[in-house]
Request: fold
Amino acid sequence: MKCLRPFRPVCELLEPRQLLASVPAGFTLTPLVGGLAAPTAEDIAPDGRIFVAEQGGNVRVVQNGTLLANPFLSLAVDSQGERGVIGVTLDPNFKTNHFVYVYYTTDSPVTHNRLSRFTESNNVAVPRSEKVLLDLDPLSFTNHNGGGLHFGIDGKLYVGVGENHIPTNAQTLSNPLGKVLRLNSDGSIPTDDPFYNIATGNSRAIWAMGLRNPFTFGVQPGTGKIFIDDVGESTWEEINVGKAGANYGWPTTEGTFNQSQFPDFTEPLYAYAHGPGDSTGVAITGGTFYDPATQQFPASYRDQYFFADLGVGFIKVLNPATKAASNFGSGFNQPVDLDVAADGSLYVLSHAGTIYRITHPTVSHTTTLSTIADSYVGDGRSSFTNYGRTTQLLARTGATGTTRITYLQFDLSSISTISSATLRLFGTLSQEGNSSLAVGVFAAASSFNETRLNWSNRPAIVGSALAQTTITTASRRWYQWDLTSYLRQQKQAGKTVVTLVLKGLTTSTSAAFFNSREAGVGAPQLVINS
Reply:
């Protein structure tokens, strides 16, 4: 009999088998490092080091493919069942502040889960640098502790907390168990948390509720979208779209349900059943979005969500738009965490003690450029108004006084060759008029100054549309335009800075709205394969 604990309180009879992990053709699977003792979570530093939590009390460091002999940190923990060191993440400003956040089970003064921050120096924690950020409620059982730990793009620290095998905890605001919490990086509670003015104490940090055991979750770079992986009981595993104030229904619901019957609950984006088939599993773990700075995998994987199953050992890819999941990897021995590195590699952490690295060496090098300037202009009474510091970009061709045109500027000096180039903007269409609007991308005659640009001094548009796409009133998402041919020409002509113009191709009362670089979230991108 093989016990699938520590992360699922279920023991099942499994046929003896040799675990031979596999990935799709064209991908390479490499064991990066072994010898870890019951690892539970990992996070990758900007310099490529991997910080790994070991359930028994250590946090280890992998540097240049080697597991360092001395732990970063050794803690006295209660590691019974699903307890122990079960979460680790690095501060968004780790390069400068060297902060490492750890979620672990302590028995001082009573057994409970604690979130602390430590300071790193030369691969070890600075002595006496622990700052306790959060002490959770005393534990009654050894399971359902959660452990998911990530920063959102809002700079807040999100913490997945299990309901400690007491389902009713998930539906009460009197304690923080069975929830996702949202904290400031110093452990204080943001006053804009959804239950801040209703709950008391630590419960004021509740961001979402109705969860059983959110052991992992993922945050999408650029958009900040959060997918919460909730480990189910005996029927369903869930991926839920994170939303402030959401209630995901546990223990009243599990898996998909009739929304009209439970209007106060939020259905999962995706759920899969338990069982022996290819599309079933045991316990969901290790979720991460594929949106690296350098895209190594084929383009079809961009914006997709990878997740794993602890008991069955698969890795699947979820398409958030279609809500369909496809097979990616199989035969992994108790995968507990997935992470995407800046170079586009996918790292798989096995609770059996190994980190695997998945690469796709045949794919061309991908660079994602941000705008060096962006703004929109308006005619009529807005002719002399500058919108360079706003968080929105607009495109609309309308009656006098309502036309809006967007200007984008990119620096191509870091690009040597271009095999493909795609402009990506995150936005939607206003709902007061048309249900769709074709928006074209044009070349501009000259560059512009973001803080001075207005309708009266705007660069002229040159020629016809280079590409076009249709914007709809659906919820905000990424839209893209293929600019390969034009940008190749510009690069061959020796241009280092290009200016692009977005304009509505038909008269409309609706405007296309996109995030500008000032928005921080979902800023414009120029994705170039070379």
